[in-house]
Amino acid sequence: MFEARLVQCSMLKKVLEAIKELLNEATFDCSDAGIQLQAMDNSHVSLVSLNLRSDGFDKYRCDRNISMGINLASMLKIMKCAGNDDVLTIKAQDNADNVMFMFESQNQEKVSDYDMKLINLDQEHLGIPETDYSCIIKLPSQEFARICRDLSQFGESVIISCTKEGVKFSAAGDVGAANIKLAQTANVDKEEEAVTIEMQEPVTLTFACRYLNSFTKATPLSPQVQLSMSADVPLVVEYKIGDFGHIRYYLAPKIEEEDE
């Protein structure tokens, strides 16, 4: 038996909104540690990794590990039937071919439940190697979303270069060129507004704009975003989800001289 109860169901809505552009369907792996999802996007360019720890739920029970193959568009349709303040309970039997979502209004006067069929997905679990990154940049997530959006007007690729002076985002195309530089913030009252850079060695890498823009759909989940970069390994874009877990996007750098 699997059962997870969440007082704020809006959080799960935001998680689905953050991955629906990249994934049509995915397997939610449930264990007593929590819920994990790991999947390549539809074009096999980026990887999405989601981790929701069991202690973040108000009630969590998972007697044995189960994997639920879910069509994300269908799940989002169901989640949109809930009010933002509704309490959500997700239930599934072991070996079930469907999963149930139950929404209760705060005053408990309205309870609705929805059954959704599970789908069979054969997704191999990809081992993500532990990497020590040369540069780890933390910046406000809204700032990052704005930079990605603005630069995508200029070119299909964004060059991110990190030095001890700061981090620079650049793009160039038919219109012209754009450069946005962020220096480390020295003293900020609010931690989430800070830009911090931990650097072992400078790194400059090029990434496809449209994936970065898809990743920024996770902005509502977290005030800060963390970018981890090293030469020749995928960029990691991580959004923390409160005290709950995280969502990470991995994107391989573009090799120069390579036409789309």
UniProtKB/TrEMBL annotation:
GO terms for cellular component: PCNA complex. GO terms for biological process: leading strand elongation; mismatch repair; regulation of DNA replication; response to hydrogen peroxide; response to methyl methanesulfonate; translesion synthesis. Homotrimer. Forms a complex with activator 1 heteropentamer in the presence of ATP. It comes from Rhynocoris fuscipes. PROSITE patterns: PCNA_1, PCNA_2. This protein is an auxiliary protein of DNA polymerase delta and is involved in the control of eukaryotic DNA replication by increasing the polymerase's processivity during elongation of the leading strand. The lineage of its organism: Eukaryota, Metazoa, Ecdysozoa, Arthropoda, Hexapoda. It is found in: Nucleus. The keyword Nucleus applies. GO terms for molecular function: chromatin binding; DNA binding; DNA polymerase processivity factor activity. Residues 127-254 form the Proliferating cell nuclear antigen PCNA C-terminal domain. Belongs to the PCNA family. This is DNA sliding clamp PCNA. Residues 1-124 form the Proliferating cell nuclear antigen PCNA N-terminal domain. It holds the Pfam family PCNA_C. NCBIfam families: pcna (TIGR00590). Keywords: DNA replication, DNA-binding, Nucleus. InterPro entries: DNA_clamp_sf, Pr_cel_nuc_antig, Pr_cel_nuc_antig_C, Pr_cel_nuc_antig_CS, Pr_cel_nuc_antig_N.
